[in-house]
Amino acid sequence: MLAAVLVSARAPFAGSYVVMHASTNDGLIAVHRGGTRVRKMHTSRRDTFISINDRPVAT
């Protein structure tokens, strides 16, 4: 939650994004473009979202 607030307040880009864990631990957060460029791959893992045909916008 804190990472999502920081991204929305300080990021040099605008739009709809998904901010979630990039791995199964708390060490890295990935920022994915929203809409059709991100997909939920798991129901219970922390790193459930991946960018489709693209890289995360930021980590």
- The chain-level structural class is alpha+beta
Task: Indicate the overall shape.
Answer: globular
Total separate domains: 1
* Number of H/I helices: 1
Spatial separation of the terminal alpha carbons = 15 Å
Helical proportion, percent range? 10-25%
- The strands making up the biggest β-sheet line up spatially as 1-2
Mean pLDDT equals 90
Rg from C-alpha positions?
11 Å
Q: Please report the total strand number as a whole number.
A: 4
**Low-pLDDT segments, ≥5 res:** none
Q: Mind summarizing the main beta sheet?
A: 2 strands, antiparallel
What percent of residues are in strands? 25-35%
| Helix/strand order | HEEEE
Can you walk through the features of this model?
This protein is of the alpha+beta class and 59 residues long. It has one domain. Helix content is 15%, strand content 27%. It is built from one helix and four strands; from the N terminus they run αββββ. The chain has a two-stranded antiparallel ribbon. Strands 3-4 form a two-stranded antiparallel ribbon.
In short:
With 59 residues, this protein is α+β, with helices and mostly antiparallel strands.
SSE arrangement:
Elements: H1 2-10, E1 17-21, E2 29-33, E3 38-40, E4 49-51
Antiparallel strand pairs: 1-2, 3-4
